[in-house]
Every structure is written in C-alpha cells, then in structure tokens.
Design a protein that fits this description.
Blueprint (H helix, E strand, L loop, with lengths): L1 E2 L4 E5 L5 E5 L2 H13 L20 H19 L1
Antiparallel strand pairs: 1-2, 2-3
Length: 77
Amino acid sequence: MLHWQERCFSVIGKGNKERVIFIGARAARALKKYLDSRKDTEKALFVTERSKPRRLSQRSIHLIFKKISILLTSYHG
C-alpha cells in the first residue's frame, strides 16, 4: 500500500511481517514516475522488465540494490 501524502509504503518482510518504509520527496517523485510508466496490472512494486511482468524475487531486488550501491560508491569515492 502506497501513501503518497506521508511518503511511505508497506512491504512484507521476513516472517511475513508487514513493515512501513518511509522515503524522501525525491525518491517519491522517482517512484511515482516509475509507476506511471508501467503498463501492467501487477500489484508488486518491483517487477521483471522482460516478457510478462512478474514480481521480482527478494534475491533479484537485493542484487539490483547492491549494483546501485557499488555504482554510487565508486562514483562518489
């Protein structure tokens, strides 16, 4: 569930527990732009880019964020 006014959303984490994630204004704008560009009806926030959109696995999301982290670290380092 996305709450644009409060800039937060819910995720299901380890142990099937729901957690609330807060994001900054810049991230909220980027997220809105991303969601507006999607043409699928998948409920998941992060989906595959190829073929039929499907929910990304936890491992896939972890690897994507790891790559971004490495790029940002090397860019600013």
